[in-house]
Amino acid sequence: MENTYAAAGVDVLKAEAFVGRLKKLSRRPGHERLWAGAGGYASVVPISEFQAVALTTDGVGTKLLLASELDKLDTIGIDLVAMCANDLICVGAKPLSFLDYYATSKLVDHYADDIIKGIAIGCDQAGMLLVGGETAEVPDLYQDKHFDLAGFSMGLVSKNELITGDDIEPGDLVIGVASSGVHSNGFSLARKVVPKSKWESLLTPTLIYVKPVVELFGKPGIKLKGIAHITGGGWRNLFRLKTGIGFAINNPLPEPEIYTELRKHVAQEELFKTFNMGMGLSIIVKKENAAVVIETFTNHNFQAQLVGQVTDQSGKLSVDCKDSSMIISN
Amino acid sequence: MENTYAAAGVDVLKAEAFVGRLKKLSRRPGHERLWAGAGGYASVVPISEFQAVALTTDGVGTKLLLASELDKLDTIGIDLVAMCANDLICVGAKPLSFLDYYATSKLVDHYADDIIKGIAIGCDQAGMLLVGGETAEVPDLYQDKHFDLAGFSMGLVSKNELITGDDIEPGDLVIGVASSGVHSNGFSLARKVVPKSKWESLLTPTLIYVKPVVELFGKPGIKLKGIAHITGGGWRNLFRLKTGIGFAINNPLPEPEIYTELRKHVAQEELFKTFNMGMGLSIIVKKENAAVVIETFTNHNFQAQLVGQVTDQSGKLSVDCKDSSMIISN
Fold it and tell me: Which of A57, B53, B83, B249 is 20 to 30 Å from A278 at the Cα level?
């Protein structure tokens, strides 16, 4: 059996088809009034002519199962907040509030406390308040130590701060911000191929990019034309920002050590279509803004660098990595 | 083994203790700026001096397992929306947007479509738009047909519309609005004691009370002093509205047929502390407002009636039901 994400039990194309049907099934008058944020990373609900509430929801997938297996539950909450908050900033919203849904077969105090402590730390890193949540004991749905977590985050964005992606153009620069590892995506594949002795490093919490990005929102003269949170689908996330363009990445960030292991088992193209490959966030700016963006991330102790540029090669992403280069198509 | 909610695997007191610890663990500067809505049914985040965003999250508990077991998934989404939207109105908020988190081991098209159709119908009933969601394939977390659902809803409330419960006083009237059955609470107990031949009636979807309540928000001269969504904890939900008061319910609504079955197996006090017993929503008003409230619900095809009044018997709720009466303590 090949080592692909689909073979690991997650059929991305089928899921995308379902999301298409879902949109059709749920479409109603009123949907046309929603604002369109770049990449659809958040739902943007206008509450006046000038201001909107941005909303995201996400989970952490099968990273949960590794955390349970290793009895290490104090950082999975950071992942949960990260997945929601990093999506909010992609549309230009400032994250404000977080709610969690925590369901388990039987509430075990020290597990529950560890999970909540992680969520609280994540909220601190994202500058959000944990304002509510639901803790559900659902006997017989989850097995022994298993549980599920969903997060819900809310932020505000004003009309003139909304990131639409519309003004991205060939020649714009792509700034990459380093990830801490695989973050919270691709675990159905990762836990299949990575030996259990190295699982602990898979659990490294997802980085939360909110603070430098929100600082950049407020800087005069700086415009972030597009922000891609590199989640499920890997570098294909860049294509979400605008149609009709492409990307040439010739100076990728170094890959965290876990990727040395993953490269032993999974083909390179599959890796870039599933994982972040060292780049947790990508930011598109015009040339003149690049230095300030990199400097701001550096000041917040993130590694950031110019990784490439936007091209006119519609739907094509070229990567020069290590000793090879390749093209990823949308 | 006795037929109580605790014996069925859900320890409400333990869960409440956890929520207490959770609040302590997550408490941060900024929490004091949140507005306090009656009963804590929703988190109310001010975005200006005059306006706030209200947020709720909830699931449908083990009602999911019955729906899976009976292969009837087209109404569980209504329950999900109901649990969130009915909570929002309790603080005076007008529901606007809904997001769902749907996690399953393996996406099966017709199950997924049925679930989403239910959510869309629920959103229509609540006057909300389904603006986003997360569909997660989490292999190995859920068994065969199992899945979990969490809902997140957002509404708006202005400062002068916020329901705080502060002005509730002895002598105020309690209006009860009929439920359709057990709604979405107490299923861990219900599915244990109700024979499988009658499970279909347990699945009757939760009523969504949004439209008449929002209409009442806008009526001049009408003030809803308190609204209790009767969920987990049954009639003890009334105590959430204000401390230092009690309730005398002498004219309860008729109990839907399913309760005839439940009464065979579960002691009466346990029933009232676990289920809604025919009253899905309770509204506290001053005497002069009662008729308009009842009329508005009736116009929307809900059964509503004067069921009792607020007393000065702190933490005591007396119920005259059928051939007996009893006191429920907070």
Answer: A57
- Residues from chain B contacting residue A139 (CB–CB below 8 Å): 8-10, 62, 188
Tell me which architecture the domain covering B173-329 has in CATH: Alpha-Beta Complex (3.90)
Cβ-contact B224, B157 below 8 angstroms: no
Binary contact (B123, A26; C-beta < 8 A): yes
List CB contacts (< 8 A) between A184 and chain B. Answer: none
Main-chain phi, psi angles of A278, to 5 degrees: 100, -10
Q: Give the ipTM of the model, two decimals please.
A: 0.95
Q: pTM for the full model? A: 0.95
- Minimal Cα distance from B18: which residue of A? A109
User: What share of chain B has pLDDT > 70, as a percent?
Assistant: 99
For B273, phi and psi rounded to 5 degrees? Answer: -90, 0
B31, B131, B144, B157: which to substitute to probe chain A, counting the most A Cβ within 10 Å?
B131
Whether CATH 3.30.1330.10 fits B34-161: yes
Closest approach of A141 to chain B, Cα-based (Å): 7
Q: How far apart are CA A313 and CA B95, in angstroms?
A: 44
CA angle A84, A90, A91 (to 5 degrees): 105
- List chain A residues with CB under 8 Å of B22: 112, 116, 133, 135
Name B72's Cβ contacts closer than 8 Å, sequence gap at least 6: B200, B203
A276-329 tens-digit pLDDT: 999 999 999 999 999 999 999 999 999 999 999 999 999 999 999 867 899 999
Q: Residues of B with CB below 8 A from A188's CB?
A: 137-139
Residue ranges per structural domain of chain B: 34-161, 173-329
B16-49: per-residue pLDDT in tens?
Answer: 788 888 888 889 999 999 999 999 999 999 999 9
